[in-house]
Amino acid sequence: MDAAALEREGLAAVASAATPEELDGVRVEYLGRKSTLKLALRDVRDRESGLELNAIRERLEEAVEAREDELRSAVLDRRLTEEVLDVTLPGEERHLGTLHPTTLTRRVIEDAFLGLGYEVIDDREVETVHYNFDQLAFGPAHPSRSHRDTFFLDPERLLRTETSPSQIHVMEAKKPPIYMVSLGRVYRRDEITATRFPIFHQFEGLAVDRNITLADLKGTLLHVMRTLFGEHRQVRFRTHYFPFTEPSLEPDVSCPICEMEGCRTCKYTGWIELGGAGMVDPRVFSNVGIDPEEWTGFAFGCGIERAAQLRHGIPEIRPFWENDLRVLRQF
After folding, report:
1. Is the pTM of this model over 0.70?
2. Strands 119-121 and 178-187
3. ∠11-71-15 over CA atoms, to 5°?
4. Which is it for strands 235-242 and 178-187: parallel, antiparallel or unpaired?
5. Do 64 and 120 share a structural domain?
6. Helices 304-312 and 214-229 sit at what angle, rounded to 10 degrees?
7. Comparing C-alpha atoms, which of 162, 183, 179 is closest to residue 103?
8. Are 228 and 190 in contact (CB under 8 A)?
9. Which residues pair with 157 in a beta bridge?
10. Phi-psi sector, 233: left (phi>0), alpha (psi -120 to 50), beta
């Protein structure tokens, strides 16, 4: 092999490469693993030949690197000359996301209770039977303890069915007076209907102080509902039963879909039930070491998606979980 001729040929090929792609082909041909130069280096048997061939290899590599820099600069110069950017043209519109209607409603609720001096609590979603049922005075035969109504993880743990356990945690951790509201996801084995879904968000409030009455509860709920739905929406209270409150009641809000004419959303009654409320049962106070003779209190729990339905006149609860952009882009 004529080493000098190989070097001249390689340097000429490098100099004549007009594009980075052509230069890469030259690199493979003269410096690749199967090139004449690399095969010759493998067969070297004397020191002088090895030194000569390695010197040629180094000069070819330097030539390739230098030519690569020249071609890169030429490409950049051509782009700067040919690709002109008109800074006066309008930019591309970026479609920004918005907060989910559930989140927007949650923030309105939080602001309403913060304005009343309540503490906002964010608690765990995996609960124990002890806190979800026992401490809240649910009887052993209560339907919500059934596997048909509740998502159990094992005999002692479950996905919370309401945010009420937060009230027990707070009452165990601090002494009255207590004013708190807990907001978060809850889980129930509910059939999907216009107003029900197996997963939903709830806001649960508790007030414990001296001389609290049912009138305080109604006044608090009316204030929050006026904040959510405006002065024009009608509100009524019906007596009901809950294991952890006595007396108990349910607040209803006039249906915004049919304006009380009757429709599928309100089950043709003109009213939509928002949640449950009542005066804290003395048994619950006794369970957490609070003297029911000294302290009284009220508790309430309402669905946030249902509140958002009433706030925005949405006939179904399903759009809140289907991620349909045709609905979400309206907020």
Report:
1. no
2. parallel
3. 15
4. unpaired
5. no
6. 50
7. 183
8. no
9. 128, 154
10. beta
> Could you tell me the maximum CA-CA distance found in the chain, to the nearest angstrom?
110
d(Cα 121, Cα 53) in Å, to the nearest integer?
77
* 166 and 38 co-located in one domain: no
Domain check: are 301 and 206 in the same one? yes
Whether 289 and 163 map to the same domain: the answer is: yes
Q: 87 in a domain, yes or no?
A: no
User: In this structure, are residues 196 and 223 in contact, taking their beta carbons and an 8 Å threshold?
Assistant: no
Number of domains in the chain: 2
Nearest Cα neighbor of 176 from 299, 294, 283, 281 is 294
Residue whose C-alpha is closest to residue 116's, from 222, 215, 211, 201: 222
Q: pLDDT at position 51, please?
A: 82
Question: Do both 64 and 122 map to the same domain?
Answer: no
Measured N-to-C along each axis, helices 3-16 and 20-31 cross at an angle, to the nearest 10 degrees, of: 170
Whether residues 167 and 198 share a domain: the answer is yes
The SS3 of residue 149 is: coil
Instruction: Using the Cα atoms of residue 123, residue 125, residue 126 and residue 128 in order, give the sign of their dihedral.
Output: positive
Residue with tokens 């304005």: 115
- CA-CA distance, 167 to 216, in Å (whole number)? 18
- Nearest CA-CA partner of 180 in 148, 213, 220: 220
Using one digit for the tens of pLDDT, what is the confidence trace for 27-81? 888 888 888 877 777 777 777 777 887 888 888 888 888 988 888 888 888 887 8
Residues facing residue 301 across a β-bridge: 204, 276
Q: How far is C-alpha 319 from the chain's CA centre? A: 16
